[in-house]
Amino acid sequence: MEQPTDKENQPPVEASTNDAASVKKKRGRPLGSKNKPKEQSEGVHPTKTPAKTKKKTKSDEPQTDEKPKTTRPRAIYTEEDDTKLMQVFLEHKGEGNGTDNGGWKGKALKAAEKALEGSELESGGAPKSVSSIRDHWDHLKAEFAIFKSLVEKSGWGWDDE
Description:
Blueprint lengths: L78 H16 L11 H10 L4 H4 L6 H23 L9
Helix pairs in contact: 1-2
InterPro entries: Myb/SANT-like_dom
Pfam family, one: Myb_DNA-bind_3
Protein name: Myb/SANT-like domain-containing protein
């Protein structure tokens, strides 16, 4: 018998039930697809109404053995700490460790941290870290900007004594 060379004109081959490779695939969406067809009549578009929610009360919340959140200790800066900070920053400004936008490079912040080391014993609070020094510097800049704007107003004076 002669084998036809044209595959389109060949009769379909029936596979045995044991042959896993020849299992016919179903057409349509893939298995596990979340895109399931919606069952609704033509022309009718259902609208969803929002579910009514009940106000939560303390009795509705589950009881847990979690500890309440504690606030982390904050660094407390005294006037002496501010004076030390300004001295260190003035030294480092001359060395070029200031940034163009009014901040400080890491070298200046590390020097300030070292200068303020142990000051928490006198002032209380947490030890002064690089991030707390940076935050305190931003606070001092904001206060200075307020005073500067007040001094520049007409009718408002400043007595240095």
